[in-house]
Amino acid sequence: MQIAIYSRKSKFTGKGESIENQISLCRRYIDAHYSGASVSVYEDEGFSGKNTDRPEFLAMMAAARRGELSAIVCYRLDRISRNIGDFAKLIEELSGLNTDFVSIKEQFDTASPLGRAMMYIASVFSQLERETIAERIRDNMMELAKTGRWLGGKTPLGYRSEAIDRLDDGRVRRAYRLAPVAEELELVRLIHRKFLQLHSLTQVETYLLQNGASTREGVPFSRYAIKRILQNPVYCCCDDEARRYFNRVGAKIYGDFDGGHGLMAYNKTRQRSNRSVAMRERRDWIVAPGSHEGVVSGKDFARIQDLLERNKAHGYPSTRSGRALLPGLLFCTCGQPMRAKLTGRMKENRAFIYLCQGKEKCKSCALPSPRGGELDEKVAALLDGILEDRAHLFARLLEGKAQLSGDSERSLLEKRLRDVERRLEGLVGSLGRLEEPAARRVLEEIERLERERLAAEERLARWTAPPIEETYKKLTSWRALFEELGLMEKRELLRRFVLRIVWDGQDGHLFLKPAREHSQ
């Protein structure tokens, strides 16, 4: 009989029940209730319990799925998960695998029906406590937001944060407000005026590039930076037109819209673990007058939002699609980045070129554009030749501590797992809209992807960094490996080696990263 002990501590500190104490208590329980059983220990230190994305936990579950574990023992329920949804799925899966689960602190054992019921109840209260604390913090922030204060974070272009002290019952209280930065605010006004004139983010971007305008960090404005400025209510005056617009979109409005100040908007984004920040629907926003100066009327702000919504369908396609390998790495000799642009008529496998953005936007470059497929192939072939220089490669591996292949392999495994999970989510969501024959085919594909997902999880859980000899063997057959990868994986692998590629009108010049950077 094989018993697993699982322990977790969210931070590397000396406080609370240490990993060692948890394991010791679990061993005593096993000695008393599973005499003679073999014990394997899985320890995650420095990981939160808000989800189950933890290396040792995943390794333990992979062992359970292989039928190697009779029971899993932990010190306390929240060591496994603080999320009731994850916990319920875990208990259901372990039940199907005939693997018992024991929490010694609460004295729950899934071997009995009462133990299972009490375990669910305790897990619900654990999550309720966590969510109540989080909700109390959010409520306090919301009440402060209704006052129009600046609550911190990166200040928007045109403003700086200014402290205001006041006396309250003999104590000094400090709050913050936005103070104007005149030169930056003039640029913000210009961006709003040009968009109302041109109705195009790309044309505004081109205008700013041609006139040498740059962000606070000194880099040219991108379309996305311009869009964020245009969408930010902080620049909108709190007048009647602004009130009507935010009422129309369902936002929560507080305070007196007197027309004399700008607006403050709160609760605009949703922070998501291990994912990019997501914008909330406008109906979730809290909008209140601030104490700073607004720069655009409510009427113009509403018109700009309507134009942006109307133009949504005409934006550039994401670089996540297509076939180009070099976006982000390829630059023209004039210094501007080069993007992939499709050529020819609308059909499958359309050819593409790499177009200098200086040539496209401000006509400042006259160099010819390279054919995309040919340049991609030349870069891959050149790297293949470099990596076939075995003595040179081996020296670079030693210098880089042999981490490149291992890091790349783990990164690719993680990307592949995320890709499979995304595809599964999309297929499951489409089932309800399909007729029976098509639904059957989708179910078969879901089963196949689920097997692939489990295999990827197991490989990831069992992954260890390879020794330098194995790394060397894999990299000497680099081209064969490269051809098996998907587009995003190829791009990621190129970025491991390549610092940048410069196009001079005839040839591409490849600049490699130093070996010590490969493992970063």
Give a written overview of the molecule.
The protein has 18 helices and 17 strands. The protein is an alpha/beta fold and 520 residues long. It folds into four domains: 2-138, Rossmann fold; 186-314, Alpha-Beta Complex (Hect, E3 ligase catalytic domain fold), CATH 3.90.1750; 316-403 and 466-520, no CATH class; 406-464. The strands form six sheets. The chain has a five-stranded mixed sheet with strand order 2-1-3-4-5, sandwiched between helices. A three-stranded mixed sheet has the order 8-12-9, covered by helices on one side. A three-stranded mixed sheet has the order 13-16-17. A hairpin with a 2-residue loop joins β6 (159-168) and β7 (171-180). It is flat and about 80 Å long. Mean pLDDT is 77; it is low at 12-16, 315-321, 394-407 and 516-520. One of its GO terms (molecular function) is DNA strand exchange activity.
Short structural summary:
By secondary structure, the chain is α/β, with parallel strands linked by helices. The protein is built from 18 helices and 17 strands.
- The averaged pLDDT comes out at 77
Task: Label the structural class.
Answer: alpha/beta
**Which residue ranges are poorly predicted, with pLDDT under 50 across at least 5 consecutive positions?**
12-16, 315-321, 394-407, 516-520
Largest sheet descriptor? 5 strands, mixed
CA gyration radius, whole angstroms: 29 Å
Helix percentage range: 40-55%
Number of domains: 4
Beta-strand percentage? 15-25%
Q: Gap between N and C termini, in Å?
A: 42 Å
Shape by Cα distribution: flat
Instruction: Supply the number of helical segments.
Output: 18
Report the strand count.
Answer: 17
Oligomerization category of the chains in this entry: single chain
Provide the spatial order of strands within the biggest beta sheet: 2-1-3-4-5
